[in-house]
Design goal:
The protein is mainly alpha-helical and 170 residues long. It contains six helices and no strands. Helices cover 84% and strands 0% of the residues. α3 packs antiparallel against α6.
């Protein structure tokens, strides 16, 4: 099983790399994909804490769930960061750009996240034969999604400002 965990770890790194490259090509700036991918740090935090609290093991199923969350969490961050960028391009100051993006993009982000969470809820409460792995993956991805959503909508704009100040010329 150590080999499987290593393989899945490599798959996660490759997936993040491919997502980064895709966004780099799309946005044309290295800092934007970096800001967006910063939201992924909340996935393992939420997943591992939730697994610990629910007394569920970190398993291969949970690692596969991490792969699923890469796409969804990244999409939520793209929605927010893209709107911030559009606002700045339109000439809004950074503070107003962040506030407007937060107001207009919070609902779609929450809708996506809540739909995902409700979709995995049957896995969390699964019972019967084979339900242990279902509960583990459901618990892990639900915790990761909740944390990435709640912390992402707060910290992605903060990362945007920090990275923008660090790379003022780019």
């Amino acid at each position: 099983t150590v080999e499987i965990f290593q393989s899945l770890g490599i798959a996660i790194v490759v997936a993040i790399g491919l997502v980064y490259l895709t966004m780099l090509i799309t946005f044309g700036k290295a800092r934007i994909p970096f800001i967006i991918l910063s939201s992924l740090i909340f996935v393992p935090i939420g997943s591992l804490v939730t697994l610990f609290l629910a007394n569920e093991p970190l398993s291969v199923s949970v690692m596969i769930g991490f792969l699923m969350l890469i796409g969804i969490v990244t999409t939520n961050a793209i929605v927010l960061v893209d709107r911030i960028g559009q606002n700045i391009t339109r000439g809004l100051p950074i503070r107003e750009s962040l506030i407007e993006a937060g107001k207009t993009r919070l609902r779609p982000i929450l809708m996506t996240s809540i739909a995902f969470i409700l979709g995995v809820l049957p896995l969390v409460i699964a019972g019967g034969a084979g339900s242990a792995s279902q509960r583990a993956i459901g618990t892990g991805v639900m915790g990761g999604m909740i944390t990435a959503t709640v912390l992402g909508v707060v910290f992605v704009p903060v990362f945007f400002v920090v990275v923008r100040k660090l790379f003022k010329g780019s």
